[in-house]
Amino acid sequence: MNYIFLQDGFEEIEALTTVDLLRRAEIDVKMVSLMPDLQVIGAHVIEVKADIMFKDTDFSDAEMLILPGGATRLHRHEGLCNLLIKHNKANKPIAAICMAPSVLGRLDLLKGKQATCYPGFEKFLGESYVGGLVVESQNLITAKGPGLSADFAFSIIEKLKGAEVADKVYDAAQY
């Protein structure tokens, strides 16, 4: 199972484009609420009902963890941070877009890796920051911002299911 984490203020285009394209590729992905209930309100006041609650989920089956940007408090969620650290130690894939790569930087998960992020968050990436639009490095996929949501999702699809599946979804989406 793959999990995307939603907190109030998340970037809707980054989260929902990713979920939509992954599901078109027949990749199991669950939207996880980090809030007190399933309702999560995005940065542009779009209310989304997550599939599951963080506190009620056993992530032992996690293949990839996905962080959309916008929610600037992700690094304060202790359970998510511990999960990211554990996932990274196991060299399992993590994807983060926009400001979310800064969470990985704050957790010291970028050592020896390259990453990109939304302008203004580079300081949290340190020497790992290389710019670029979508950057794949070891177990990580990072992307710069909202306009790259589809590219970010296609990189995830390719990592999880291969180039052939990514190309099929790409073509079907008329991207």
What descriptors fit this protein?
globular; 175 residues; seven-stranded mixed beta sheet; two-stranded antiparallel ribbon; 19% strand; alpha/beta; 31% helix; 9 strands
What count of helical segments does DSSP give?
5
What number is the mean pLDDT? Answer: 97
Could you describe the largest sheet, including whether it forms a barrel? 7 strands, mixed
**Overall radius of gyration:** 15 Å
Helix content: 25-40%
Please characterize this protein's 3D structure.
The radius of gyration is 15 Å and the shape is globular. The chain has helices at 12-24, 78-89, 101-106, 149-161, 163-172; strands spanning 2-6, 29-33, 39-41, 47-49, 52-53, 65-67, 94-97, 134-137, 140-143. Strand 8 and strand 9 (140-143) form a beta hairpin. The longest helix is centred in the first third of the chain and has 13 residues, at 12-24. The chain has 5 helices and 9 strands, in the order E-H-E-E-E-E-E-H-E-H-E-E-H-H. The strands form 2 sheets. A 7-stranded mixed β-sheet has the order 5-2-1-6-7-9-8, with helices on both faces. By secondary structure, the chain is of the alpha/beta class.
